């Protein structure tokens, strides 16, 4: 690594030792002023975030309204999930979990004294299936399910209760009926939009003639996260995913969910916001950068999911790559030299962002990542600049999520809320949790207390728990419902 003599020994301290309060107050001595200036568009002030919160609150209220929902960008789909686990669930339950490039089948067993056992298997969803015919996708899912049932010697003489996590925008009209609104996260299967995905799954299973399944509920991964965390902590009222995509759901009063036509004797229902679409009406234009616009224009769904595209793991690495390429082309990085890898769309994975920010000393991980990207012998200043770009992008992502969470917390106005969180970005980025806690606290009403709880396999476990609660509620002696405050 090339260094200037006067810079020897001036390595930046570990991020955990840095002051990450409002504004970039940590040591950026090695970062050039040119890079700092160019990255200003990626920094969001509390004033900007507060404006976004107001717009998000308005979009959520529009999504809840019967008259305003059709024109609302944030759809606020009613999930028809009204009951949390209460510890009385017993038996074996299956779950299917489709939400990205990997698809999982799970078997969960619940017993006395909080007994819990889970077996699961991951299956790939090949690229050609992700953008092929919808029937091929559901045939693939059914095939994986049948293989799993056979492998685990499950008794299939009677229909096995199953929860189906389908983590794409879904308009539900019941607990077991939901219509796909639009594909996201790189999927674009034909013949599925505006169709009932539970019916498509059942038809694929029926075509096989070798398994019997009772689909007890369909949900997305945010609802699964609430259910999974609520099994341990009944105070869980919000679920958020920061992974390949980004979305949130929360517990809403039935009277506020005007489109809900289910059991109104129960006071609450989980609402799936689908906030990834926030800003598709231009509300984010003031804070979107040229990199955001390029990503959007080159995506499979231009003009849609703009909030998600500024946050999630599917796009974060690409935002960094576009910034690096742009700045190198201006001779502000790597003396203007760029490798073919760095010029390649999608080559800079979001995991690289976590690796670079996880550096403790000597830019060891940064050097490794740059080497993998074909950038050899970068200067110490180059390394500092690249890390700064990563920090700006991931920090903005965390702050946008925080603004959304603060908007929900302020709207709910519960004095104590546990937020279930899942997703690869939240799990694996070294400082995402800390950034979220700090910024959400700044933006939330002072009398509201919250904590973030990492979901243990929320999207899969939560689906099985939805099935377990549905079976439990067939027994009249069981109590159910959300705890009231």
TrEMBL record:
InterPro entries: ATPase_NBD (IPR043129), Hexokinase (IPR001312), Hexokinase_BS (IPR019807), Hexokinase_C (IPR022673), Hexokinase_N (IPR022672). Residues 237-469 form the Hexokinase C-terminal domain. Keywords: ATP-binding, Glycolysis, Kinase, Nucleotide-binding, Transferase. Pfam families: Hexokinase_1, Hexokinase_2. It catalyses: a D-hexose + ATP = a D-hexose 6-phosphate + ADP + H(+); D-fructose + ATP = D-fructose 6-phosphate + ADP + H(+); D-glucose + ATP = D-glucose 6-phosphate + ADP + H(+). GO terms for biological process: glucose metabolic process; glycolytic process; intracellular glucose homeostasis. Its EC number is 2.7.1.-. The keyword Cytoplasm does not apply. The keyword Kinase applies. PROSITE patterns: HEXOKINASE_1 (PS00378), HEXOKINASE_2 (PS51748). Pathway: Carbohydrate degradation; glycolysis; D-glyceraldehyde 3-phosphate and glycerone phosphate from D-glucose: step 1/4; Carbohydrate metabolism; hexose metabolism. Residues 35-231 form the Hexokinase N-terminal domain. GO terms for molecular function: ATP binding; D-glucose binding; fructokinase activity; glucokinase activity. GO terms for cellular component: cytosol; mitochondrion. PANTHER family: HEXOKINASE (PTHR19443), HEXOKINASE TYPE 1-RELATED (PTHR19443:SF16). Belongs to the hexokinase family. This is Phosphotransferase.
